[in-house]
What we know:
The structure is a homodimer of 223-residue chains.
Chain A: H1 16-37, H2 40-47, H3 51-57, H4 61-80, H5 84-89, H6 94-111, H7 113-122, H8 128-137, H9 139-155, H10 164-180, H11 182-189, H12 196-210
Helix pairs in contact in A: 1-2, 1-4, 1-7, 2-3, 4-8, 6-7, 6-10, 6-12, 7-10, 9-10
The structure holds a DNA duplex (30 and 30 nucleotides).
Amino acid sequence: MQHMVEIEAASSRIGEDTRIAVLDAALKEFAAHGFGAATIRDIAARAGLSHGMIRYHYKTKERLWFATVAFLFERQREELRFTDEELQRGRGDKLEMFRIWLRKYVRYCARHPEHARIMMQESVAPSARLEKAIAKHLRGGHAIVRKQMEDHIKSGLFPKNARPESVIYIITGACQNIFALAPEARLSFGYDPLTKKAIEAHAETVVAMFCPPGAQVNTKRKR
Amino acid sequence: MQHMVEIEAASSRIGEDTRIAVLDAALKEFAAHGFGAATIRDIAARAGLSHGMIRYHYKTKERLWFATVAFLFERQREELRFTDEELQRGRGDKLEMFRIWLRKYVRYCARHPEHARIMMQESVAPSARLEKAIAKHLRGGHAIVRKQMEDHIKSGLFPKNARPESVIYIITGACQNIFALAPEARLSFGYDPLTKKAIEAHAETVVAMFCPPGAQVNTKRKR
DNA sequence: GCGGTTACTATCCAGATGGATAATTAGCCG
DNA sequence: CGGCTAATTATCCATCTGGATAGTAACCGC
Lengths: 223, 223
């Protein structure tokens, strides 16, 4: 709550509950059908509202989309912020903090598979929509992540001459993929990645593969 | 060419070049906008054809989609098949074959980022479309991949108690993600993952992280 | 060349969609 | 209560979409 970003589109005051309901419905519809195929009417119906009302609060479909994405990233920032307990648990140890973050991120991806889906749908070509959304929500955070990856590369956790960008997308992809493709996994393997057990198992596997307990600040991996 | 699967939808003979042109255009449009928002007219325009002609050869939009996906998987199978040279180069060594496959797969993902995008778009919910496509193209191949992953887990290359499904999606996600999100990477990092250099660098990083040269059939990673 | 099947085009249509606008209701200040 | 603004609904509209159909051109065995 502390730093709820001003949602640009809302030209008027709208009840907090309905606002969330609308954005949540929009999130699901946009993720399910993409910007083009999602319809204002379906979003309204899902939120139990009329088509005209959404157009009253968010003038255009595009502005609704921006508000939705803003909501998405805001929620992500909140859900991925380290709690005091976590900061204490990982005190000082960069690797331990990274492990905690990995687990948190895996759980976030499982909880909100729409996130990966929306980003991928928008990322067909450098559109004006994507450009604007990235400038507002992504550029800042990504710079920090990039720095962290560079540290992990220097420390020897990741291959010495890897590009930090490669490492970032490898790790995020490894965390997201199974949940974004959950229906595929169910249909082709008969495996449901969205059970509590499967989520935790995935988190542990990710940790074991990218930051195993034995990992040290050594340079063994040099090629 | 040898085993060109019968494309179900084509009720009539259609020139091989135009057929490819149509499916290639359809692939791009479906990947760009999703099934719902992609339009037959846009696909036709992209292939330089009339709207009616596509509806003549592929009766419905859905059948065009199936033909498109069949084309996609057929092409994938062909492009990922080991050549004689590769079989010789990796002779006997399972790990070396895995490394060769990883590099091939990364290059494939870079060449055809639509693949990941289409699969993810269809994988919002277990739809009839997805179900049918998986039954036809994925189920068989996935069983083999799964077996391989189980071997790699047993051999100690991957964490002992990992679920093979987790490992599969971790690796494929790690390979695909950066290319499926290429526009995002460009806009937020100023990094273009689709240059020759970047693609090869990514392949090497993937290999170094999942199957480094030093990797042996040891059990060091046991937790 | 001719009949007929196949390939392709030109139109038409009903339904849906984003958006605009008018009509109605609710809330609020006095 | 009365006026006024903001919230919400009800309609309307131009456009686009998948699909249907009728008409035309090309091909082919004879």
